[in-house]
Amino acid sequence: MVGRRSAPSVAYFLVTHALFFLLACRLSASQQARNYTFVHDARTAPEISYYDYIIVGGGTAGCPLAATLSQNATVLVLERGGSPYGDPNITYLANFGAPLADASPSSPSQRFISEDGVINARARVLGGGSCLNAGFYSRAEADYISGRDVGWNSELAKQSYEWVEKKVAFQPPMKQWQSAVRDGLIDAGVLPNNGFTYDHMYGTKVGGSIFDTAGHRHTAADLLDYANPDGLTVLLKATAHKVLFHTRKARPTAHAVVFRDSTGAKHRAYLNSGAHNEIIISAGSLGSPQLLILSGVGPVDQLKAHNITVVLDQPMVGQLMSDNPMNAVFVPSPVPVEVSLIEVVGITHFGSYIEAASGANFGSFPDNDYGLFSPKIGQLSTLPPKQRTPEALERAIYNMSKLDRAAFRGGFILEKIMGPISTGHLELTSKNPNVNPSVTFNYFKHPEDLARCVQGMSTIERVIGSKPFSKFRYDTLSVPQLLNMTATAPVNLLPRHSNSSVSLEQFCKDTVMTIWHYHGGCQVGAVVDRDYKVIGVDALRVIDGSTFNASPGTNPQATVMMLGRYMGVTMLTKRLASA
């Protein structure tokens, strides 16, 4: 009878809606907890304001830094993007890739293409890259922490990691496919089996994740829970245009930041008077060197080319840029696999890290996708970098839409090299801070980087051929047959001559992609000192991944968040000691 439900249907309807209501209440409570009273749209900001600290960039380093400094000072954070809260594409693991595929002006990610031809992205949202990435959480190696480049205090670094982990790090579920990758790595000789740990250790381990067991992302913005709300102001959609300097002193001294809100209205934030008050740039590896140059601190030829007043000729700003090259193999599976991002890593002695992602999200209809390796987000490896034109991406996306669902069943095993040794540079293209600078990474320019990729790909071959992984590969198909079967898929598979090191070298060059771990441009020892103070000027620091000489650990986000906390504690300690 139309309009009536059977008793079971009514019961199901009531239970379902009751559960939905409870879930909605829980989500609402969660959102309420993140309805920070100190976060405002920049349009509400006064034309002139004063603070003890001004932080440009509310990202992976800026949020923990601000939360810490707010305990005993007034802090302003200028974030050019919006809030991550309430955006399901950021929150839910199954929606990974959607923000990276969004090319609109309001997207939480901003796409850029390096001069190498590799398509990449930079964050434009409170919480920074932790709102966009694949979630893996792993600390830096002990030698990195205590090494000559950074020389962090090991105990304070440990405490800072733990402070971060209480809010955003979780043990991943480790279902069948990820377990098979782990066991395959062990079978392939990536030993020992270190179990679950946040620490960086040679061998195979299960690392942490910023996705909780329900598949909900926790970002650096969650670290603002620690903030003193009376000491912090966060302005969203506030784009910094330049840092202002007093130049009549012996050394230029930073004293204000000019920023604009979403309407284009200009605002100025000034430092309060005080010996410990400072401006901190935490705008990321593109944004931080870009803002320094826009402010007159950079290579003099670039400053003059853009008619920017020279505050300090600093030729190393924008230099030594690096991006850890990533190469991956898609392995179709004869059986269904779970949805997973990065949970396991093989840390080799030869300098390659092996990771994996899988799942039903690769084939979620109507939008078939390969998540971490989708041409929708620029990850097109079937063409060499310079051939990855917008037209080629569109063709790949179209071809992907025509594939049978079975073509999306499986997962990717990837390798990323440590370091890298190869470096490039960044150059200003416009005085508009919303316009991407030009960046060159010079992937595989150094032969050792290429050798590490070859060894990493050889290890992946052994993992795929291992007994523990056998359930998730087609035993009846040879590699050439597998290649022919999926030749039209917009993903890469093993090279046709997999036993030839030459072909593996070419494979590495032709299929290189990003894993979004680029860094440099304001490196320690070149642009900033070991206290992260910009060399040659006063009252200005850079605290973020642009200061790294190499990417820390297997995935840098844990260390970027740790650095924000670490430097916040260090700066506050000195401030209180002199009070």
From TrEMBL:
Recorded hits in InterPro entries, A to Z, give: FAD/NAD-bd_sf, GMC_Oxidoreductase-Related, GMC_OxRdtase, GMC_OxRdtase_N, GMC_OxRtase_C
Signal peptide range: 1-30
The cofactors required by this protein are: FAD
Any one GO molecular-function label of the UniProt entry: flavin adenine dinucleotide binding
**Residue span(s) of domain Glucose-methanol-choline oxidoreductase N-terminal:** 123-146, 284-298
Q: Where does FAD bind?
A: E79, R80, V125, W516, H517, G545, P556, Q557
**What pairs make up the disulfide bonds?**
C453-C508
One Pfam family assigned to this protein is: GMC_oxred_N
Family stated for the protein in its record: Belongs to the GMC oxidoreductase family.
Name of the molecule in the record: Glucose-methanol-choline oxidoreductase N-terminal domain-containing protein
* Lineage start: Eukaryota, Viridiplantae, Streptophyta, Embryophyta, Tracheophyta
